[in-house]
Amino acid sequence: MPGGHPPPRGELVTGSPRRRTAATVALALLATAAPLTLTATAAPYTQRATAAEAQAPDVTKAAAQWIDRDTLAWKPTGTGADAVHTLLYAPDGGLTVKDGRIDGDARRIRLTPVDGGLTDAQRAKYPHLKGYSAFAVDPRDRDRVRYALTGQLVAARHTADGTLTDATGVQTQGVLDDLYSARATQAELGPSFAPGRTTLSVWAPTAQRVDLEIGGRTVALRRDADSGVWTATGPASWAGQEYRYVVKVWAPSVQKVVTNKVTDPYSTALTADSKRSLAVDLADPALAPEGWDSLRKPAAAPAREARIQELHIRDFSIEDRTSAHPGEYLAFTDASSDGMKHLRDLARSGTSYVHLLPAFDLGTVPERKDQQATPDCDLASYAPDSEAQQKCVGAAAAEDGYNWGYDPLHYTVPEGSYASDPDGTRRTVEFRRMVQALNGSGLRTVMDVVYNHTVASGQADKSVLDKIVPGYYQRLLEDGTVATSTCCANTAPENAMMGKLVVDSLVAWAKQYKVDGFRFDLMGHHPKANILAVRKALDALTMAKDGVDGKNIVLYGEGWNFGEIADDARFEQATQQNMAGTGIATFSDRARDAVRGGGPFDEDPGVQGFASGLYTDPNSSKANGTSAEQKARLLRYQDLIKVGLTGNLAGYTFKDSSGRTVKGSEVDYNGAPAGYAAAPGDALAYADAHDNETLYDTLAFKLPDTTSPADRARMQVIALATAALSQGPALSQAGSDLLRSKSLDRNSYDSGDWFNALHWDCRDGNGFGRGLPPAVDNQDKWSYAKPLLTGGGTRVGCGEINGASTAYQDLLKIRSTAPEFKLATAGEVQEALAFPLSGTAAETPGVITMTVGDLVVVFNATPQEQRQRVEPAQGTTYSLHPVQASGSDETVKSARYEGSSGTFTIPGRTVAVFRRG
């Protein structure tokens, strides 16, 4: 995840009152109570606060929560059994606290305290509200509820003599779900098409009026009272037209009724820079590339066997001189480009998926190429450790064509900046051609999806969801402010209609774009139930009905546990341990940290690990501790890697480095269980991804300065091998096999092409030494970076780059062809896989020996040749695996086996695979 930016403040669109539609008249009829004017003469609600009050209540915050049509949850201040509690609503807003009283014109709903507070069922649904008091809506006022929700709401508490003791705004997510979700979740939203007519539908239950701007005219939408969905049906000529909604609604973020002109959250197409939605039918044959309907995909494999390359669309080709479409979807159709040749090489070696970083409509990139800024300097002319490159790149970053894309604007439209023309449906056609080309190259396609936050909220210019149903789609904190723990404005998939949007959007990508898998950004911020609902919806897609087999679509995501929802505070999260047994994988950070050393946020980046020389090739960093401390930590790291090699199985039993017999769940990882998976496929292994430094850059910080380029390349392969040869799925960042560097940038989400572009031609280098990385996220590490960027030992050439890639591909070939790496159950892993030297006097720090079926795999991360005597192998014939024996790595070919003693001899910094027989 990138760091977030404060959302830009947009222009507030307001207007004079319009003619009321039948729907707004119907809403008005619900307001059967006479207005309650809260002025100095409207006793008893106008008494001044006592002098003892320290602070006036703040009705701009929303500390009360209306959780269903009958119940308000609140923790009001003040005491007294005879207090009066009231829910005030003002269709036009204007309620304020003035001189110790609530001022403004309002109606009221009577509230009664509930003895015992919330019910058990309510506490189970809203665990974060378990300490709140409960207030029941008076049955006499229930007919006012729907209308009340269209205006400002204030919960108030007065003493018997009328003194105001507390007042606050009100959150309404729960009551909106209670009233509307049963019908609304079944509605077809966005554009839909039937012979001779086009229909546009939007869910806006709190809106006072919704109009549609289309084809140069304004059309009033009709409101369905049961679902809260507003709909307009027009002629077939609406198809392809630009449109947007005009929504009149109370907006708590600005404390007034506003009229927002806003695009469709269910857009299927957009004009350039997302200014207008387009009423486009994705089933229109005109949008299907030749051969789309008969597209044949590479054979699907179980998710536990997936080997994934994580790839950014622009990075892939923007500096590839052999590509005819640099930076575009169509670059994947350039079959003879260096990039596509390399992807085909990886596919032949066993890579099964290309994981595309976000490719939906982004909020931070100008989509027209002629409006994208470029660095205004000669970047190549500066020294490798200069501050000039990052300064120049940074000056253009806000308006250039680059961003990772974790800033969703419209969830179900391809990003326009990757299209040859962002205006219209070209992006749809070209995205489909990209999928075709990848499938034709033997690779299935995964999309990185980001439903956990939006690029903006409230009345900001790039806010969409929150302008239509304010305060619903975003997750709110206790005071009603939007949670931002994800870096940006969090969404709330626990709310029915946000959960529906997630499911509907993913089904559209699977069905209309034939995407083969989805990676969920910050999946732990989703309810587990939401992710399982996605799985169920995808499983229902069939070739006969939908043109895709949904059961073959893979799902995985970041199961991190943090923020306002941590530890299941609001719902059962889709976190690592909670997702075990679902077949939906979560990234495992356990082995990653052990392989690299330390953690991603260490103050000193020199903290070493298994593949970076801890104890066996120590650097000068004092953070590593004494030699004895390093040895002890290295052996603990080896336990974490062993658990990772099993697929992070919680129940796998083995001897740890201390000689104890333990389960994977009993190996400690920073206070959490290292093993959490129920079966291979629950945990995804990786050594690097787009977040944090690339693997090469991490090793540059950690390996001793004197490490040669050749040895750096070999350590890179060892690190990659710990994921590639594990049970379960594994991922690597594109270019890691080519020693890819981002010049030590730990967060390159907005660092431009200069630091991010992939270099497929080894003569262009690997990206190292392109200047000091951007100051915003890296300046505190510049003192470590400067000597590395100018040091000769960290420079690699074609020999190292190509050697690392071919050695890695050899390991992928072994992995993809050997049944030993395709074990389906925890029982099979327990029976077939072992670490025979673990926890014995023969265990060597820096070496892991694994037996699995007919294979013996030795990871030797030490600089020296190592002998590993495996007594169970004694008297059995083993030889170096044929792929390595005939491969390009001459060093591994010197690995040997002595049958009389059962001894495997492995060169330094080498992974060797032996096969029985």
Mean pLDDT: 93
Helix content: 10-25%
Low-confidence stretches: 1-54
Could you tell me how far the N terminus lies from the C terminus, measured between alpha carbons in angstroms?
47 Å
Rg for CA atoms: 30 Å
The tally of beta strands, per DSSP, is 42
Shape, per Cα inertia axes? globular
Describe the main β-sheet briefly: 8 strands, parallel, barrel
Number of helices: 22
The chain-level structural class is: alpha+beta
Strand line-up of the largest beta sheet: 19-20-23-26-27-28-33-34
Strand content: 15-25%
Keywords: Signal
Protein name: Pullulanase-type alpha-1,6-glucosidase
Domain Pullulanase N2: 61-178
Signal peptide: 1-42
Question: Can you tell me about this structure?
Answer:
The protein has 917 residues and is of the alpha+beta class. Helices cover 23% and strands 22% of the residues. It contains 22 helices and 42 strands. An eight-stranded parallel barrel has the order 19-20-23-26-27-28-33-34. Strands 2-3-7-6-4-8-9 form a seven-stranded mixed beta barrel. Strand 8 and strand 9 form a beta hairpin. Residues 1-54 have low confidence and may be disordered. Residues 189-267 form the Glycoside hydrolase family 13 N-terminal domain. Residues 61-178 form the Pullulanase N2 domain. InterPro entries: GH, Glyco_hydro_13_N, Glyco_hydro_b, Ig-like_fold, Ig_E-set, Pullul_strch, Pullul_strch_C, Pullulanase_N2. Belongs to the glycosyl hydrolase 13 family. Residues 1-42 form the signal peptide.
Set down the secondary structure blueprint.
Blueprint: H1 22-30, E1 36-38, E2 64-68, E3 71-74, E4 84-90, E5 96-98, E6 101-113, H2 120-125, E7 133-137, H3 145-148, E8 152-158, E9 164-171, H4 173-184, E10 190-194, E11 197-203, E12 209-214, E13 217-220, E14 222-223, E15 229-235, E16 242-251, E17 256-262, E18 277-278, E19 307-311, H5 313-317, H6 338-349, E20 353-356, E21 360-362, H7 388-397, E22 408-414, H8 426-440, E23 444-449, E24 453-454, H9 465-468, E25 489-490, H10 496-513, E26 517-520, H11 528-539, H12 543-546, E27 554-557, E28 585-587, H13 589-596, H14 627-645, E29 653-655, E30 661-663, E31 668-669, E32 672-673, E33 683-686, H15 695-702, H16 709-724, E34 730-733, H17 752-756, H18 775-778, H19 782-790, H20 798-817, H21 826-832, E35 833-834, E36 847-852, E37 855-860, E38 866-869, E39 878-880, H22 882-885, E40 896-898, E41 903-906, E42 910-916
Parallel strand pairs: 2-9, 19-20, 19-34, 20-23, 23-26, 26-27, 27-28, 28-33, 33-34
Antiparallel strand pairs: 1-6, 2-3, 3-7, 4-6, 4-8, 5-6, 6-7, 8-9, 10-11, 11-15, 12-13, 12-16, 14-15, 16-17, 16-18, 21-22, 24-25, 29-30, 31-32, 35-36, 36-37, 37-42, 38-41, 39-42, 40-41
Domain Pullulanase N2: 61-178
Keywords: Signal
Signal peptide: 1-42
